[in-house]
TrEMBL record:
Superkingdom as given in the UniProt entry: Bacteria
Residues that span the membrane, as ranges: 6-23, 35-55, 61-82
Protein name listed in UniProt: PQ-loop repeat-containing protein
Source organism phylogeny: Bacteria, Pseudomonadati, Pseudomonadota, Gammaproteobacteria, Lysobacterales
Keyword list, A-Z: Membrane, Transmembrane, Transmembrane helix
The species this protein was found in: Luteimonas yindakuii
Length: 91
């Protein structure tokens, strides 16, 4: 593995730690009113396109990174939907 690959994997680790922390914070928060559904829609679309691009240019670091980002976007979207339903049920 090249030095460039190590930097790419390190960047992936930092990014995932950041995204996981944000999802945790979102889950704990009392309200999701400030969370935009379009954020996740855009993130899902962009991640999907980046996965395709990364595969086309044969870059495994970016394929894995974008798959993980896609997963965090889907989890974020699902959590937001669950919390919105709970909030609506409690009103």
């Amino acid at each position: 593995m090249s030095g460039a690959d190590w930097i790419g994997w390190a960047a992936t680790a930092v990014l995932m730690a950041t995204l996981i922390r944000q999802i945790r914070k979102q889950w704990i928060a009392d309200s999701v009113e400030s969370v935009s559904v379009w954020l996740f829609v855009g993130q899902i679309a962009a991640s999907t396109l980046f996965i395709i691009y990364s595969a086309m240019v044969s870059n495994p670091v970016f394929v894995v990174t974008n798959v993980l980002i896609l997963i965090t976007a889907v989890v974020g979207q699902v959590l937001t939907m669950i919390k919105r339903r709970r909030q609506d049920a409690n009103r």
